[in-house]
Design a protein that fits this description.
alpha/beta, TIM Barrel, Chorismate Mutase Domain, subunit A, 8-stranded parallel beta barrel, elongated, binds phosphoenolpyruvate, binds manganese (II) ion
Length: 362
């Protein structure tokens, strides 16, 4: 192995295992000066482990800046020499993989608009065959865990051993607080499906704006994510892409200092004993809830039989609305959100209907 190549491997290995792993840099590489100044200022904060920059930018609509292309790769190489920070870029085609590797990019990532397309993912995976480089895979833009899982499988089948996940939120139609709704439960489900696989949170593309970046980053850390990817720019308001969500390297450092970092575990015996007691209480309450739900379904069965005997429909909208109104009022006093009550009662109601349906058609 050439010395330069060996150094690249080492840098990638070390950074891959660093926790929390903090990745930052501009949405897009714009000019050589911008890339170098960003890298130097990020490095000066001492809080960033890896430099990111988009070289090829898949934009949803034509007419926006689509990246400087291959000519930006030597700028990243220079930034790495200048700061020692390993570098990562997004790749979406086989040619981009080749070019990125040719310029010693340490870690690659697959973007959200690529993860949705199995042909593109396969092309990237084919270009990775026989290459030893870590790859991070962003969630697809639509909330579909199978596509995300499929991309992981394709890259793994190409022989890539180090695969990480990036949660960047999911698009949803209409205006929400977020540019891409986090749908935390999906990322959590993906974490459960892939135990031990690195999961990075990307608050920049979730929020689409600076003012709520911190809250999303903190939530990710509270949920035991392995790190953060946050876009930074030396002059955010004039960035050529994603201007609203980028922060200066110095602002990023302030944000990172304010985050309350959590650990996953502690050797303290007292902590474990207390947790054990509380978890037993939870188990006990869960058992009771299940018992009660079972009883509730038995009553629903009775109602089903009675309705059948009298030839009455299963669904009665008025009754359902009054159940919900009662539950909202009670739930509020108990500190249960309207959103939770709705989801919970929808599920219970559906199960009730299924029970009654079976009885009515027996
Ligand atoms: C990006 O990281 O700049 C980017 C284009 O992200 P995503 O693929 O999440 O939209
Ligand atoms: Mn971006």
């Amino acid at each position: 192995m050439q010395a330069a190549e060996a150094n690249t491997k080492n840098a990638a290995q070390t950074v891959w295992n660093k926790r929390p792993l903090i990745i930052s840099g501009p949405c897009s590489a714009e000019t050589e000066e911008q890339v170098l100044e960003t890298a130097v200022r990020l490095n000066k904060t001492g809080k960033v482990d890896m430099l990111r920059a988009g070289i090829w930018k898949p934009r949803t609509r034509p007419g926006s800046f689509e990246g400087v292309g291959t000519k930006g790769l030597p700028w990243l190489q220079k930034a790495k020499q200048l700061t020692g920070l390993p570098v990562t870029v997004e790749v979406a085609t086989g040619k981009q993989v080749e070019d990125a590797l040719h310029f010693d990019i340490d870690i690659l990532w697959i973007g959200a608009r690529t993860t949705v397309n199995p042909f593109s993912v396969q092309e990237v995976a084919d270009a990775l065959r026989g290459v030893d480089v870590p790859v991070m895979i962003k969630n697809p833009i639509n909330p579909d865990l199978e596509l995300w899982t499929g991309a992981v499988e394709r890259v793994a089948k190409a022989g890539i051993k180090q695969i990480g996940l990036i949660h960047r939120g999911f698009s949803s139609y209409g205006n929400t607080e977020y540019r891409n709704a986090p749908m935390w439960h999906l990322a959590i489900e993906m974490k459960l499906r892939n135990p031990g696989m690195m999961m990075i949170n990307d608050p920049s593309h979730i929020c689409g704006r600076r003012d709520i970046l911190f809250d999303v980053a903190q939530k990710a850390i509270d949920l035991d994510y392995d790190g953060l990817m946050i876009e930074s720019h030396i002059d955010p308001d004039h960035a050529w892409s994603d201007a609203k969500q980028q922060v200066t390297p110095e602002r990023l450092a302030e944000m990172l200092s304010s985050i309350r970092w959590r650990k996953e575990d502690t050797p303290s015996e007292e902590f474990h004993a207390t947790m054990e007691k509380l978890r037993q209480q939870i188990n006990h309450l869960d058992d009771e809830l299940l018992q009660i739900l079972g009883q509730r379904m038995k009553v629903a069965d009775e109602i089903g039989k009675y309705k059948k005997a009298n030839n009455i429909t299963i669904l009665q909208t008025n009754r359902w609305n009054s159940i919900l109104e009662r539950a909202y009022a009670k739930g509020e006093k108990l500190g249960l959100s309207k959103e939770f009550i709705t989801k919970y009662f929808d599920a219970v109601h559906m199960e009730s209907i299924n029970h009654q349906n079976k009885i009515m058609n027996d």
